[in-house]
Amino acid sequence: MAQILAPTSQWQMKVTKSSATASPMTAKMWGSLVLKQNKKGPTRSPTKFRVLATKSEGYTINRLEGLLNLDLTPFTDKIIAEYIWIGGSGIDVRSKSRTISKPVEDPSELPKWNYDGSSTGQAPGEDSEVILYPQAIFKDPFRGGNNILVICDAYTPQGEPIPTNKRARAAEIFKNKKVIDEVPWYGIEQEYTLLQTDVKWPLGWPVGGYPGPQGPYYCGAGADKSFGRDISDAHYKACLYAGINISGTNGEVMPGQWEYQVGPSVGIEAGDHIWASRYILERITEQAGVVLTLDPKPIEGDWNGAGCHTNYSTKSMREDGGFEVIKKAILNLSLRHGEHISAYGEGNERRLTGKHETASINTFSWGVANRGCSIRVGRETEKQGKGYLEDRRPASNMDPYIVTSLLAETTLLWEPTLEAEALAAQKLSLNV
Fold first, then answer.
1. One domain for residues 135 and 179
2. 21 belongs to a structural domain
3. What are the DSSP calls for 52-91, one per residue?
4. pLDDT tens for each residue of 169-199
5. Residue among 431, 355, 357 nearest 189 (CA)
6. Which residues form the domain of 45?
7. Which of 53, 151, 202, 370 is such that its CA lies 20 to 30 A from the CA of 267?
8. C-alpha to C-alpha distance for 179 and 412, rounded to whole angstroms
9. Are residues 132 and 183 in the same domain?
10. pLDDT of 77-88, one tens digit each?
11. Is residue 307 part of a domain?
12. CA 406 to CA 170: how far, in whole Å?
């Protein structure tokens, strides 16, 4: 529900060493580990036993935490690269780590890798090797230092994109000269829901019950209104550290639901940044013991669903006279409504009901400042005569590579017939 108006330069984050960062474990520290197993007394339960190491300064640190916080930079040039890719469902993120001999600045410096596609639903067991191509690099907020997260896409050993690799097709569209010349900007509003681990019920909700009706939760504060703010804030800071172009965050209408905005980003970068941000959110919720879901309608009934509204503009839309260009783009979008809906996320029909700030999935509409339309145009855009449009149809589990490239293709590369264009223009004029 945020408005994103203009792109900013990539943040360059510098890591400052905190005094709380654990130092490398020395032999003396390891030697201070005491296991008094011969002492008489009640046997300790293994589930309650904690292994501690005592530092000579007189305080104790958790051994595992000390190792996790080790700063490798003074001791080796080697770094850890976490290769991340999209799994067989098209929405799950997978990853594995490898050691790289020195810090890198560009994906081209990284080697290709492979994984067992039969274990992710992406290849048969008798020919299971899938090849990862590094495409985008982000700083690793979990390991720190020079360590990196690497967004990859997947190919057969013969170099063909596998079916779940939607990035390759998007990259082709964004390399088209017509698209490049129009410098497409995207601002993506990612909504998500936090669930309690054991019961898979929204965070903060009474188990098997419901909170009070919607109203006080959107952008609310207080223990009875905001559930999961620490996760949202940790994710916000981790994304900034990583170099993701995150521009804001807020609590959403349904309690236990949050949103963050990524962008404006240009072209293929929008998809890379959304997938990296999703991976970081999965890792943070993993550490917090909370389940993340991108289901577009996690709770049936009188509750808002979860979307991934996509703000979009081209160079021509942002210049004087751009409002007419926006109207032409909307006309094209109306003619390909079915194609867009089929690519905008699984289960989206449960969300796009015409209620809860959505348009019906079966009809296309647009309006100024109307959140019940398929396409919303802001008041400021109408006033200035230029700006951007917001596609409110994508679900929270949409693939950003598909949505962003499809918007560019439909509005910049695809041309309707004159008859279809005239008919669509007549229908749209009746909807406004």
1. no
2. no
3. EEE-TTS-EEEHHHHHHT---TTT-S-EEEEEEEE-TTSS
4. 999 999 999 999 999 999 999 999 999 998 9
5. 357
6. 27-68
7. 370
8. 7
9. no
10. 999 999 999 999
11. yes
12. 8
